[in-house]
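Each field is set out underneath.
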Amino acid sequence: MAGGLALLLAPAKAEEGIAIPAPALDEPANGSSETAVLAGGCFWGVQGVFQHVTGVRNAVSGYAGGDKQTAQYETVGTGSTGHAESVKITFDPRKISYGQILQIYFSVAHDPTQLNRQGPDSGTQYRSAIFPVTAEQAMVAKAYIAQLDGAKTFDRAIATKVEPGHAFYPAEGYHQDFLALNPTYPYIVYNDLPKIENLKRLFPGSYRSDPVLVSEAKASN
């Protein structure tokens, strides 16, 4: 991703995924629909993971952290816009909680200890960040980071920042459903398909074999 296609085959250790405790503080299941906005490196893989999670109704790749006028792939790729490649996840809180979304995010969707990079991609646009849409989400996210750091769940401190007050802007159409539509793409094979396998292994009760696609979500609305 970073620097165009030149880094598609750059050396990078595939995500291994680790079992982590559930959040001690979580939201109650209020209503039938909620959204979460998460950034964890290239949005292809993060979107792909959550498209395979039971209770998720849609997962859209996009940008958060900067202004609307700079929410474009090539511009965001300069690393100067404040944006991070992000995914907006719409889910049913009666089936999966916000805290459980974060558990998957920290466990298999990315490595939260990497600062301004993921695998072969580097720059602030690939940072680990949570963009809470409510004060309650911000509280749950901060408490969970403190819980995991306090328990020394990872071998390094979590680099994830909680960044409230930012709008989400959908990415270009060719980025949507990228993992599902391009399962043999070298970057996907090496960096992202292992994340799907880790989701299946670590969260078998939350794994769905058929991904929920952006194209299908739009058609059903």
